[in-house]
Amino acid sequence: MHKILIIDDDIDMCMLLERFLKRHDFSVRSAKSGKKGLEEIDTDAPDIILCDFRLEDTDGKDLLLQIKQRLPSVPVIIITGYSDIKVAVDVIKHGAYDYVTKPLLPEEILSTIKNALNRKAASVPEQHIAPQPEAQTQVQKEQQPQRKIKPSSNKHIFGDSREFQTILRQIDLVAPTNYSVIIYGESGSGKEVIASEIHQRSKRKQNPFVAIDCGALSKELAASELFGHEKGSFTGAVGQKIGCLEMANGGTVFLDEIANLSYDIQVALLRVVQERKVRRVGGNKDIELDIRIIVASNELLWEASQKGKFREDLYHRFNEFSINVPPLRERKNDIMTFAYFFLEQTNQELGKQITAFRPEVEEVFLSYSWPGNLRELKNVVKRSTLLSDEGVIDITALPFELVNHHKLAFDRYEASPVTERPAAPPAVTAAPPPVISQPAPQIPDPAIAAPARPVEINGQSLKAVSIDAEYEMIVQALRKANYNKSKAAKLLNVDRKTLYNKMRQYKEFNEE
Asked: Region labeled Disordered — which residues (predicted)?
């Protein structure tokens, strides 16, 4: 029997809810204040909490934050009034599962409670299936469980993780409104897909959705791309151009990497946001706009405004609602869901029938940090599908950096720094070679004088020692850069192409 805690200072409301929920086989307790509610939580944790937003002794949002600190996985449903839509938006942002408005409808509250409990149960991590014995047949090895892809529209799919389910509820909440939205997330995390989904669930879905990457616009081209221009307004303007804001009239415009716009363009954009009018470059009349604006950034716009990189007044215009998209490495439950979705897409594109990933490939996917997020995952799946011909994707089809990252996570090179590693054990001819053929040499502190002593050669060439040391340096740089190869190349003071060439060289060296 599920336990429900009601926190409401309206005694009549508590009694009505208690009687109703008990008839539906719930164990129900009530608390008449926020303080009493927290005491009840500490005494016996409930499975779900119904909490009125307006309590005499505390603010509903503050109480929500205290509840989530104590019981982060317990769904909290906020009870609010018809006029409190902004309150509802705020509490969802701060971790509430959902909200219900007064007067309460029995079917609505019961359905909301059951959905919350079902989603809580579904969010429990699945148990890993033990690998089959080596004696299993090749057919058994290739029979992988098929993943069910959950489409949210004809174009988009979303993950099963609790984090993405929160995002879906936020989309449902804000989509029917005309609020401006800021979407925060790392590059490749799916911000444009979320913006498009908001548009598809809005009243503007029959009108255009126009997306533009502000990070790809030079200062000279930004005004023309956003606002359009008239013929002859500047050198090279051989014809009239309609800007993306005007193209989105009646619909939604999505401005990705908004913080990259220059200060001058931000000033002009502020006027558009305030007045809902745009004037083309070189034009002499204003064009009325009916648009919804969604923006995205990989840095917090409030912090950028405090550093003088982004106009604070423009930030406040956009910040009517915000959605944070966690990186893929924090949503492990989503990785294989998206991998199978990208596999289906690539099969259609290439005319192939690859059905699954081998278990060791899934292990690699789940252990990798995915600095490029969904974009990187999609590229890896496309490359692996292209290289595979046997119905399943094998580990040999994966890029070097993924496989090597997985190996390093389980060998002795992950556990201790270079200068503290023990000497390599004696070679055993029957065992496969490790990822790195020899440990990196110990490097003495130059400030400490050491007596000269003979060097043990052990049949290892000077070239091999040099390669090992260089290899280890690259591994350390990759770790420090969270496996972002561009950042690692900067740390090593080489260009990205050189780093790629070196990585290919080491792969060949390990295979010899």
From this structure: 123-155
Q: Residue 384's pLDDT is what?
A: 92
Helix (H) / strand (E) element for 285: namely none
- What's the total number of domains in the chain? 4
Going edge to edge, which strands form the sheet with 27-31? 27-31, 3-7, 48-52, 76-80, 98-101
Domain holding 359, by residue range, is 328-398
Q: How far is the C-alpha of 393 from the C-alpha of 360, rounded, in Å? A: 10
φ, ψ (nearest 5 deg) of residue 130:
-65, 140
Burial of residue 37, with CB atoms counted within 10 A of its CB: 0-12 exposed, 13-18 middle, 19 or more buried: buried
- Residues contacting residue 197 through CB under 8 Å, at least 6 positions apart: 152, 153, 156, 158, 171, 175
Span 52-85, pLDDT tens digits? 888 888 888 889 989 988 888 899 998 876 545 5
Number of neighbouring beta carbons within 10 Å of residue 438: 18
Sign for the CA dihedral angle at 497, 498, 499, 500 comes to positive
pTM of the model: 0.53
Scanning the structure block, which residue is given the tokens 């109480």?
Answer: 63
Q: For residues 277 and 287, is the Cβ–Cβ distance under 8 A?
A: yes
How many residues make up the chain in this entry? 512
Q: For residues 32 and 105, is the Cβ–Cβ distance under 8 A?
A: no
